[in-house]
Amino acid sequence: MSITSNSVERRVGVMRKCNEVMELISLYIDGVLDAKSEAKLLEHVKTCKSCKQELDETKAMVGLYKNIEEVELPADFKEQLHQKLLEERNKEISSPQRFVLRHSKLIKLCSSAAAIAIVAFAARGFFGGFKSFDKSELANELADNRMMARSANDFAGQTEAKNGTDMLDSYNNTTTDAASETGVNSIEKSSDDEFLVNGKEALGGSFQHSLAMMAMPEAPPNRADIIITVSEPEAEMEKLNLCIIELGASAVTKGMGAENLAEPDKDGQNDGENDFNNIRNEYKVLNTNYSKFINCLNNNFPTLSVTKDVEIDSINARIAEIEKTIIEIDKQLASLDFTITENSEKSNELIKTKEQMTAEQERLNKIYEYIIVSVELKKINATEPDK
Amino acid sequence: MDDEHILLKKSQEGDIHAFEQLIESYQKRVFNIAYRIIGSYDDANELAQEVFIKVYRSLSQFKGRSSFSTWIYSITKNVCYDELRKRKNKKVVYIDEDIKYDNNEIQRQVEDGRPQPDEIAEKNEIKRIVHEAIMELSYEHREAIVLRDIQGFSYEEISKLLKCPEGTVKSRINRARRSLKNILKKNEELLNEYYVK
């Protein structure tokens, strides 16, 4: 069968029209088609069967969605979220470094055109000024606990009673925060008092040292925030990824993944530039890889001076010290002569102390198993300055 | 200053109660977006929680350039996308170990990463079919269908959420509907009954 050039042209014309109409179908169904295009579509479907079918089917399908009701929230959704929010707030209290950073080093380092890093430190003095709610109540409550003050004074040796109170308040305070963070129950206050007093009597020097270490006033954060100000955040992502790749997927888990927290413009004019003004990634870095990760960042961002704001070495030293003490307790337990009545009581005390130590060790291991490193790539002058 | 602004300000100061009030009206929608994109009720729960924690954590970054709702839904979309990407990556590792799948590796990766529908939540047959069909769509198309057809966002709103021009949104929705229609054709008989009604 021969096809004339006229009929070919006609067919091509129809097909072109069909393609155009296909593009308009959804807009027509949604009622956002302009009058001219709508007239064109309606005119076309009068004569074109396939487009008419396409229109009808799409319309019917969109109607199907009406069958889809919204699913209800799980019954405990709000409660779960509430708990998580409390944990989140506690984390903020125990690591208020973000604020410190943005106000000190940011300003100082902003003159560097290539890259500026700001690393925050948890400042002990900051706890007092930081707006806290339950925390201050808890601190007051603890300050009234005379037994605590006495024990603190006892084992802290040369520390004055008042300072001892502060130290222990802070310790217990942060213990509570950290415990709720990790879901580990904090040691009850009353038994803690007993434990500290008895513990000191039961054991020698090294144990006292460990207690003093455990009672360090700061609860070092397990989270580091790093802000890198660059001219092309998206391009710099590659450098950041190098560090991730270097440590391997098992070593660094991307916690939240690439996230774009930039707000869409009000006018909807998103030219793409805004998408990459503020890229923040959170990484769960294994305790043992944290130093390596920070070194890698420093190597890949030459003008960046990132310091380890999570004092991983001292934290690990503290965990090791507790481990040593537990071994010491075990030794003492093994050497006790149980034919002496007094030793039975002493043994109970030692076992109790060991349990407390083990709990503390587990707690620290859990908190510091991973260091959460938040790396934010910020475009220079892209956003308004922080308050 | 309207209620939302007052609650927002209090939330930015760390007031959890204010924050919970602030997000009250967004919870169900965020949950539903996550559910339709991810396909599983339990996972949607996790993701929706993650969205609100992320919103809470990032409150200081919200400067009011967009509406609060647009910002929340934009974060929802990011969290869902990230989850699907993570799942896909996990499967890549698995498939790399399995030589048998070499020939259609890409196809497998997509399929294996695809969330399964939660049958408990979807009792009705039509609902189930539509839900499953949506799950078969590519992420881009699924997102378009969920935002436009299930959640009823306008083209303009979707453009803001996805940060892409309205023209792109229009053609994406059109293409997504055509893909979905093709997938649904597998269940033509059942759906024809519905169409006739």
Task: Name some characteristics of this structure.
heterodimer; A: 387 residues; alpha+beta; six-stranded mixed beta sheet; 6 strands; 60% helix; 9% strand; disordered C terminus; B: 197 residues; mainly alpha; Rna Polymerase Sigma Factor, Chain: A; Arc Repressor Mutant, subunit A; 2 domains; 10 helices; 0% strand
Question: What would your notes on this structure say?
Answer:
By secondary structure, chain A is an alpha+beta fold. In chain A, 60% of the residues lie in helices and 9% in strands. Chain A has 15 helices and 6 strands. In chain A, helix 1 packs parallel to helix 3 (49-64) and helix 11 packs antiparallel against helix 14. The longest helix of chain A is centred in the last third of the chain and has 27 residues, at 341-367. The N and C termini of chain A lie far apart (78 Å). Helices cover 75% and strands 0% of the residues of chain B. Chain B contains 10 helices and no strands. Chain B has helices at residues 3-12, 16-38, 41-57, 68-96, 105-113, 125-136, 139-150, 155-162, 166-184, 188-196. In chain B, helix 2 packs across helix 4 (68-96), helix 4 crosses helix 8 and helix 8 (155-162) crosses helix 9 (166-184). Classes of the chains: A alpha+beta (387), B mainly alpha (197). At the A-B interface, helix 1, helix 3, helix 4 and strand 4 of A face helix 2, helix 3, helix 4, helix 6 and helix 7 of B.
